[in-house]
Amino acid sequence: MEPRGSLGDTLARARLERDMTIEQVAAVTRVPIRYLIAIEAERFDVIPGRIYAKGFVKAFARSVGLCDRWAGEAITAAMAEKRSLAAA
Question: What is the pTM of this model?
């Protein structure tokens, strides 16, 4: 799957295309369900820290067949965009 659209939408779409539930992703990644839900909704402020957010997003991406390098770059860009919108 070629990543397109927002980070959360892309991860959710990839998860659904693999016919995985959020619970299955949590079991594979060991990332708490509440954080996976927050990632799909792009609510990164819910996750306790940038390092955790990046790690969780990369694990999520790997579990649904996406490139973790892309995921790392996408989360960095998404978090920067959220910070700039909050500052405006």
Answer: 0.88
Fill in the amino acid letter for 43. Answer: R
pLDDT, tens digit (0-9, with 9 covering 90-100), for 41-83:
999 999 998 999 999 999 999 999 999 899 999 999 988 877 6
Domain range 7-87, CATH architecture: Orthogonal Bundle (1.10)
Q: What is the 3-state secondary structure (H, E, C) of the chain?
A: CCCCCCHHHHHHHHHHHCCCCHHHHHHHHCCCHHHHHHHHCCCHHHCCCHHHHHHHHHHHHHHCCCCHHHHHHHHHHHHHHHHHHHHC
